[in-house]
Amino acid sequence: MDFENAKVQMRKGILEFCILHIISRGEVYASDMLEELTAAKMMVVEGTLYPLLTRLKNAGLLDYKWVESSSGPPRKYYILTENGKQFLEQMEETWNDLQGSVSQIISDSLKANN
To answer: In CATH, what class is 3-113?
Structure first.
């Protein structure tokens, strides 16, 4: 099994969750999302982000609005819909459950190896 591929798959699995969390704070511009995800070492490129944002919008989880910019063309700012907020709450519950389960398994493995 290829470690790099496994690592990429793990990141893809949580990318949607992270994007929804970033948008949940308020209106956000795509390049700001890219910057935050990159700073968090999620290593996302525009070619990954924009199709995912489109898919989330088509699923009714987010929307966007155009805001005029004094330094160029209008900017698209993303916001969560009510469905998006509910979906994120469900994802948070799942994340917390998974995080607890994984921590327990890792802890048990460490105890068994000592």
So the answer is: mainly alpha
